[in-house]
Amino acid sequence: MEGYQHLGLDERRDIYRLIGTGRTVKQVADALRRHPSTIYREIKRNRHFDEEPLFRGYFPTAAQTMASNRRVRGGKIARQPELAAYIADRLLAAWSPEQIAGYLRRHRGQREAVCHETIYQYVYGAEGRHHKLWRHLPVARRSRRQRYGRKPRGLHIPVANTIGARPQEIADRSSFGHWEGDLLIFRREYGKANLTSLVERCSRFTFLTRNPSRHSAGVMAGIDRHLRDMPPPLRRSITFDRGTEFAAFATLRNRLGITSYFCLPSAPWQKGGVENCNGRIRRFLPSDTDLALLSDREIQAVADRLNSTPRKCLGYRTPHEVLGEQIALLKAG
């Protein structure tokens, strides 16, 4: 079976001639031994639009030119300098690629319409990198991440420890003692040191602990060190993502009686409390922070600042107040 061949100028002339004689698309397809969808697509994609009705329609030479232009290296944006300049201007005005694409589709017509993925490819392509357009994206990353998230990294999770097995009281924050944990990673040139962030779901109380590496035993030891002094009712469960740094989760049950749950693959949003907290922490400890230059007291000062800040979700009480009240109730009982 021969491979698919693009339509050429001769076939486009035949399409023009046959349509002019009143043939249907199916009859044209049969005459050219093409699938009807090929002819439908050809007429739709390469139809010439003009302000003058007399010059609107399907014309073989114009169709050939439009089809050839699509195969030029560089993509639609790079081939249209005015469109490229407009997109760069809108990015500079803090529009997202999705907003730009939607506005073009609504106000500029089909000729200048591009999807947001095309804009991202242009931004991270040769010309976009030359002009450093990535700096104007909502999340200004120098390199683009994979579109569909990270692949599962081989950590075996028993069914009893998947997030689907987590009791409803944890999901709706109706009881205390349920935590979420994550790792904050910093620039590779500063070594392997990182921070574990722990957030209690009800009170939003935060612990930060320094780790010398991402080895699971050390990460779990830091969590054990912070939660060990909590009353048992306030250390009942903890939710992680599937990073291998949490592979030794069984040690928390053996030492402290804490049950660990894990998000689905590539779904860190399922532990949204700690993800939100990480964003707050990054205001004070951005990714280019060298942890070796910070003392434990300075890291604790960041946690104290978070815990002493009133939160709308807590009725403008602080996490320290909310967790402190719960500890007092447990001691009184």
From TrEMBL:
UniProt-listed Pfam families: HTH_38, rve
Keyword Nuclease included in the entry's annotation: no
Integrase catalytic domain span: 163-327
GO biological process, one term: transposition
Keywords linked to the UniProt accession: DNA recombination
GO molecular function: nucleic acid binding; transposase activity
Highest taxon of the lineage: Bacteria
GO cellular component term, pick one: cytosol
InterPro entries tied to this protein: Integrase_cat-core (IPR001584), IS30-like_HTH (IPR025246), RNaseH-like_sf (IPR012337), RNaseH_sf (IPR036397), Transposase-Integrase (IPR051917), Transposase_IS30-like (IPR053392)
NCBIfam families: transpos_IS30
Protein name according to UniProt: Transposase
